[in-house]
């Protein structure tokens, strides 16, 4: 099943034209041998998508959503391939994904912020870790819902060492807990329970008064 060199070149050219259209591979003819050089289309700064892998999770993001505000995402999508390598932790040439060693749980909320314009903090992530991620992505805390009030409230309720009022609140909380437990203990003791005989007399008097 021999084929001429012209036939091989014609076939390779057709295949090359196809892959050039889909933007996933480029075929090169060297010494009559077809070699495949994988190059992701995400390396083209004019591509509408950029492929990211954040904390092991893949994201395909549209460039047009990230060009309005100067964030790290803006810098990534507006940069060339070489410039992006300086902003991320590396690039996987087989998939064209730029990978970043960050928290993937927070990344979901970061990506959602760019799509919706509304920033929410995950409930299972502490506020300091969330602020660290916002600083990494260059996202202003003004987008968070009452960020200063939420932080102050969290410190007041959860961190007694943050201020004197927070310490007093913690002491009062412990006091009321012990008072409640002590009250339950006293209520279970016969000496402090209501005499059942008095209860019948009370009901009798109450009925007579109503009549």
From TrEMBL:
Any one Gene Ontology molecular-function term assigned to this protein's record: delayed rectifier potassium channel activity
Residues in Potassium channel tetramerisation-type BTB domain copies: 50-143
Organism superkingdom: Eukaryota
Keyword Transmembrane helix part of the UniProt annotation: yes
Membrane topology of this protein: Multi-pass membrane protein
Segments traversing the membrane: 166-186
InterPro entries the UniProt entry points to: SKP1/BTB/POZ_sf (IPR011333), T1-type_BTB (IPR003131), VG_K_chnl (IPR028325), Volt_channel_dom_sf (IPR027359)
A biological-process GO annotation: protein homooligomerization
GO cellular component terms attached to this protein's record: voltage-gated potassium channel complex
UniProt subcellular location: Membrane
Keywords: Ion channel, Ion transport, Membrane, Transmembrane, Transmembrane helix, Transport
Gene3D superfamilies associated with the record: Potassium Channel Kv1.1, Chain A, Voltage-gated potassium channels. Chain C
Signal peptide: none
Protein name: K+ channel tetramerization domain protein
């Amino acid at each position: 099943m021999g084929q001429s060199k012209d036939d091989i070149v014609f076939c390779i050219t057709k295949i090359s034209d196809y892959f050039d259209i889909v933007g996933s591979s480029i075929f090169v003819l060297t010494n009559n041998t077809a070699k495949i050089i994988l190059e992701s289309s995400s390396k083209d700064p004019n591509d509408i998508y950029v492929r990211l892998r954040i904390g092991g999770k893949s994201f395909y993001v549209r460039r047009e959503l990230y060009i309005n505000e100067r964030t790290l995402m803006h810098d990534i999508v507006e940069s060339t391939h070489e410039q992006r390598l300086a902003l991320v932790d590396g690039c996987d040439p087989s998939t064209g994904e730029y990978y970043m060693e960050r928290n993937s749980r927070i990344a979901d909320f970061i990506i959602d912020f760019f799509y919706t314009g509304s920033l929410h903090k995950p409930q299972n992530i502490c506020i300091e870790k969330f602020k660290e991620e916002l600083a990494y992505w260059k996202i202003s805390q003004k987008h968070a819902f009452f960020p200063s009030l939420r932080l102050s409230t969290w410190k007041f309720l959860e961190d007694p060492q943050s201020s004197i009022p927070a310490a007093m609140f913690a002491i009062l909380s412990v006091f009321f807990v012990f008072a409640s437990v002590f009250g339950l203990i006293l209520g279970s003791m016969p000496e402090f329970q209501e005499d059942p005989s008095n209860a019948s007399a009370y009901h009798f008097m109450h009925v007579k008064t109503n009549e």
